[in-house]
Specification:
Blueprint: E1 22-25, E2 30-33, E3 36-37, H1 38-44, H2 47-55, H3 61-79, H4 83-86, H5 91-99, H6 107-129, H7 143-152, H8 158-171, H9 178-188, H10 193-204, H11 213-223, H12 229-238, H13 256-270, H14 278-295, H15 305-315, H16 323-343
Antiparallel strand pairs: 1-2, 2-3
Helix pairs in contact: 1-8, 1-13, 2-3, 2-16, 3-6, 5-6, 5-10, 6-7, 6-16, 8-13, 8-15, 8-16, 9-10, 9-16, 10-16, 11-15, 12-14, 13-15
The chain binds coenzyme A.
Length: 361
């Protein structure tokens, strides 16, 4: 049975909407968010700046910092009622369950509440995993500083805060990726912001999307020394495995975010923070790039954002089990911007499919 409709598995190359939020040029390796290159934003902006920029809100970063601080306190009041959700052993499952409890008010309020709640819940989850009491938020701090404080129990130094801000700004938005598309599909039905973001968390959880940075660190640990990198990569490919942190649907050059995050790790090293895995990561990236280019001479498979996410978040002292959830805290900013933009389209996203079964009669 073939009804003659052309199928685009994976929707590769299909343009599903027009957006003023961001632009990804996979050939040039360029990521632009609201008219600015990601390299510039990552160096100068905070999480709060990213919210102002992406949500195009009339607020400034200072007032948004206040709003996020108040919203973190509100989220904290829900923590004790979220015992079962936050006790789930997988950080993304815990985040998905906990965010589902955020009350839906309106898009502007929900965006702030979700961004704030995600930070509070991921921090609480990571402490509970270590058998520690969660730490209450300090509304006077920036989002990045307070998150690190809620995880580690002490106010972080400026270099660590800068590192996390750079990371969150770098991953805030990235075109029509699977989780952003998911958020837009849910929003297109007229559903609320909280439902859209919870669905997007589910999409980000997959290892082909946001689930890669933890496994990248596992890989670095397994390789352990630069001399073993090439043989290890060859063996993994022979077992039919994919090399985590390598390859991308859109980029045909090195993901520009890998560059930005590698530089953020270097900045931490310069500030005196221990960056144990940087040299190893560079060696593994070189080996993986070489081996993959031999196997796929016509398909460029280079480091993606997840590769140096692993190294950066590890350097910031975060547990690998929390990496995808920390990614989600940053990406919520982009998801919310896309939900708000999707509202203006006033059209449900509803593609078609080709039936391959039998027809009656
Ligand atoms: N390791 C080994 N081989 C890879 C690979 C990787 N990381 N990424 C792609 N390939 C291979 C595929 O097996 C395929 O080979 P084939 O043509 O012999 O079947 C070829 O390259 C094309 O891959 P394809 O699956 O068409 O790419 P995609 O655009 O659908 O997938 C990713 C993009 C990101 C899902 C893919 O590169 C991947 O799985 N990467 C590892 C996971 C990861 O780092 N995810 C984070 C993304 S930001």
């Amino acid at each position: 049975m073939n009804t003659g409709k052309e199928v685009h598995e994976g929707l590769e190359g299909i343009v599903v909407t027009a957006t003023a939020i961001g632009h990804v040029d996979g050939e040039k390796g360029q990521l632009v968010v609201r008219g600015r290159d990601i390299e510039v934003l990552a160096e100068t902006c905070t999480y709060e700046d990213a919210c102002v920029l992406l949500w195009a809100t009339p607020e400034n970063a200072r007032s948004l910092q206040t709003d996020l601080g108040i919203a973190r306190r509100d989220a904290w009041e829900r923590v004790t009622r979220l015992g079962d959700a936050l006790a789930l052993p997988d950080a993304m499952e815990a985040l998905r369950a906990a965010l589902a409890h955020v009350p839906s008010v309106n898009d502007a309020r929900d965006s702030v509440a979700l961004a704030a709640s995600a930070a509070v819940y991921v921090a609480a989850w990571s402490r509970m995993q270590r058998g520690l009491e969660p730490v209450a938020p300090d509304a006077s701090l920036t989002h990045a500083a307070d998150f690190l404080r809620m995880v580690n129990g002490q106010v972080p130094g400026a270099a660590l805060v800068r590192g996390l801000d750079s990371y969150w700004v770098t991953v805030a938005d990235h075109g029509m990726n699977a989780s952003t598309f998911t958020a837009r599909v849910v929003a297109s039905t007229g559903s609320d912001m909280v439902s859209s973001i919870v669905a997007a968390v589910g999409a980000l959880k997959g290892p082909l999307h946001g689930g890669a940075p933890g496994p990248v660190l596992d890989m670095l640990d397994a390789i352990a020394s630069p001399a073993r990198a090439e043989a290890w990569i060859e063996e993994a490919l022979a077992r039919g495995e994919r090399i985590m942190g390598m390859g991308h649907r859109i980029y045909r050059v090195r993901d520009p975010r890998a560059e930005v995050l590698e530089r953020a790790v270097e900045a931490l090293a310069t500030a005196g923070v221990r960056t144990d895995r940087l040299d190893l990561a560079r060696a593994v990236e070189r080996a993986a790039t070489g081996v993959l280019s031999q196997r796929h001479p016509t398909r460029a498979l280079k480091a993606n954002v997840e590769f140096y996410t692993a190294v950066l978040l590890d350097t910031l002292g975060l547990a690998r089990s929390s990496f995808s959830a920390v990614f989600a805290i940053g990406r919520i900013v982009g998801w919310a911007a896309h939900v708000i933009e999707q509202r203006t389209k006033k059209r449900i996203i509803r593609p078609d499919s080709r039936y391959t079964g039998h027809l009656p009669g």
